[in-house]
Amino acid sequence: EVQLVESGGGLVQPGRSLKLSCAASGFTFSNYYMAWVRQAPKKGLEWVATISTSGSRTYYPDSVKGRFTISRDNAKSSLYLQMNSLKSEDTATYYCASQSAYGPYYFDYWGQGVMVTVSS
Amino acid sequence: DIVMTQTPSSQAVSAGEKVTMSCKSSQSLLYSENKKNYLAWYQQKPGQSPKLLISWASTRESGVPDRFIGSGSGTDFTLTISSVQAEDLAVYYCEQYYDTPFTFGSGTKLEIK
Which of A114, A115, B3, B113 shows the smallest number of beta carbons within 10 Å? Predict the structure, then answer.
């Protein structure tokens, strides 16, 4: 059974940093592109970052580019999101998701999500 | 950026009825080299994380009931639920993965009368 378990969320002040982690199991982690997708309270879904299978390529939308960094450790089957210079608009539930074994396509498995609140 | 527009924003139907929801993209999601549409549908039930229902516009994921049908091509797509069940109460999102930034529609909330 595929499992994606996020951790590291919490309350953080604007301008500070936070690092999220995602522990994967039940599939060959190193064969999958991986991603982070967020959902602000009562809002829709927003893609945040994607990383290739080896970690050599990363992709971000303009809203987080230069502030967020996605990384992975295939030996530990783990995905990370380093979030710097956090803003109130980054407040959301952050989901770890696998993004297909064939390329950065659809998000096929999702974690349960972790809440990040940016507030003073 | 590719803008995804979903309609209606909400819909209430009775169990057993057929429901259709629309998703339109601001540019074609059909990749000419492989003739595939880079469009997915997700279901998010209350309090849960999203679940992939359909990829490539019409390929149902394993375990997804066959009452869920994806169709369309280019810029116009439809998700049909042939006979709605009470457990289909959810918000349904379409998403394009044709190009970055990957973008989602704003969702269609399905309510059961």
Answer: B113
Backbone torsions φ then ψ of A29, nearest 5 degrees: -55, -45
CA B52 to CA A43: how far, in whole Å?
Answer: 18
- Residues of chain B in contact with residue A101, where contact means CB-CB under 8 angstroms, are none
Q: How many other CB atoms are found less than 10 A from the CB of residue B111?
A: 10
- Report the alpha-carbon distance of residue B54 to residue B70 in Å, rounded: 7
How far is B39 from B4, CA to CA, in rounded Å?
Answer: 10
**Which tens digit of pLDDT belongs to each residue from B1-32?**
999 999 999 999 999 999 999 999 999 999 99
- The reply to whether omega before B65 is within 30° of 0 (cis) is no
Burial A84-116, CB ≥16 within 10 A → b, else e: eebeeebbbbbbbbbbbeeebbbbbbbbebbeb
